[in-house]
Amino acid sequence: MLMILAAMFLLVPIVSAFAYIDPGTGSMIVQVVIAALVGGAAFIGAFWRKLFRKRRGQDDDKTDTENE
Amino acid sequence: MMKAHPSSFRDPLGFMFEQDGVLYRQVNESCRTNYEGLMGSGLYDELVAKQLLVPHVEVDAPRGGAGAWRILKPDLVPFISYPYEWSFSQLKKAALTTLRIQRIALKHDMSLRDSSAFNVQFIGARPVFIDTLSFERSIEGRPWVGYRQFCQHFLAPLFLMAGCDPRLSVLSASWIDGIPLDIVRGLAPRRYRWKPGFLTHIRLHAKAQERFQEAASRRSTPPRLSRASLTRILDSLRSTIEGLSWNPGKTQWADYYAKTNYSEEAMELKKRFVASVVDEIRPGQVVDLGANTGEFSTIAARGGAYVVATDMDHGAVELCFRRTSAEKDTSILPLVVDLTSPTPAVGWMNAERASFLDRCSGKTDLVLALALIHHLVIGNNVPLRSVMELLARAGTHAIVEFIDKRDSQVQRLLASREDIFDGYSETGFENALSGLFRIVRKQQIAGAHRVMYHVQRI
């Protein structure tokens, strides 16, 4: 599976970001891949729940009320 | 005289400096946009109102150096501590605080441009962000520049502490820009391998770092990451961290009080002794060495002091932090410190992050050394005189409990070794004070082979 994910990197162009710390090229690119994976998982999860009519309140836009 | 702070040299947009004993932060002209964004967007007000960021005031003088645009005088954190001195829950709380700050920043179209664990400090059990200049205007579509640091400073040690051993927090002292992800990938237990958080933020991330290590010089369009995607990553990091836990269970020290050999009455005497000294000298800062879960620290804190409660045992510190955290305490800071090798000075020029003793010296009014020195002398072969030198270096007053050889705890330490400690006696202890401390008060604890001393540095 890691190989497949690694192959996804090839689809992402190289980054040049300006920051006083080195954000790390790989660390910038991997975020695009992770966002896609997490988004995909969320989509499948939502689809799955819909399929089984197990809908529950989804807090997509969680505010920062935790720890308060 | 202006003196730049030894940890504040990396950022070209500003730095900390000290003038006449007061700490200031210079904001350079080049940081104007960021700073105006922080102050003008409502982010500063929201973070300060939620007690997530140290407040500051703008002052006219002095200037710290060339390029100055504003000089800030921030509120000070009572005692600076470092991630490698935190227990598991402290690091976890600091990590979640950083993510929360980033979420709030994004709401104001700002973003953290770094996410070093050193930017979080604790006031008692309350985490607070101290780097006012860490915020920049967020650029739509750009991935988070602080992501690498976040994973290496927070996620990596948390995985190791939860999955292997909390004592691995010391790795953060060797790699002060965060633990390399390939190390974590190699050390973490197998059960983490396919957990989504570990698979993505550690394994895949490490792979990407390796894959693109050589490619950094090639330039092309930056990858785009929508705000929604960035938020998903922050949520994923948060749920990963929230899912990590560590329980002290039965550690050597966490149930120490249950195993002590003296009566409730003797314990009460000891508490009264500490309370009366605190009442008498009204210390501002107390350092409790070998604090265990902070029972005596609490007495000092009740007397109005800010207490740094140190212990070498992660379990004891964890329990202390859980309690103070539940009570929302802001006067006791529990830290993991091994006195036989206190936190060293690390980083650039060995000055970037100060040693534990340097952070204590000059600021500590009272040191507590209760049921401690027999462990150092008999358990670790440190001469009594040297123990007293340590206490004298740490603070101006000390409360020391001397436990003689007849005590069963000392007997236990001596059981497996030859008794080479001829000078370990009440007289020997008092001799060891000479030239360093004078005895203010001395009290025998009835029913125990223990004597309490209040001593003052000469």
Tell me what you see in this structure:
The complex is a heterodimer of chains A (68) and B (458). The longest helix of chain A has 27 residues, at 25-51. Mean pLDDT of chain A is 69; it is low at 13-17. Chain A contains 2 helices and no strands. Chain A has helices at 2-9, 25-51. Chain A is an all-alpha fold. With 458 residues, chain B is an alpha/beta fold. Chain B has 3 domains: 2-74, no CATH class; 83-211 and 222-242, Transferase(Phosphotransferase), domain 1 (Orthogonal Bundle); 256-457, Vaccinia Virus protein VP39 (Rossmann fold, 3-Layer(aba) Sandwich). Helix content of chain B is 39%, strand content 19%. Chain B has helices at residues 32-40, 43-49, 88-107, 147-163, 171-174, 181-187, 196-211, 227-242, 256-259, 264-281, 295-302, 314-326, 356-360, 373-380, 384-394, 408-415, 426-432; strands at 2-4, 14-19, 22-28, 56-59, 68-74, 110-112, 120-123, 126-129, 135-137, 285-289, 306-311, 332-336, 366-369, 397-403, 437-445, 450-457. A 7-stranded mixed β-sheet of chain B has the order 12-11-10-13-14-16-15, with helices on both faces. Chain B has a 5-stranded antiparallel β-sheet with strand order 1-2-3-5-4, with no helix packed on it. In chain B, strands 6-9 form a two-stranded antiparallel sheet. The A-B interface holds A 2, 5-6, 9, 12-17, 19-39, 41-42, 62, 64, 66-68 and B 10-13, 50, 93, 96-97, 100, 103-104, 113-114, 142-149, 151, 196, 200-201, 203-205, 207-213, 215-216, 218-226, 229-230, 232-233, 235-236.
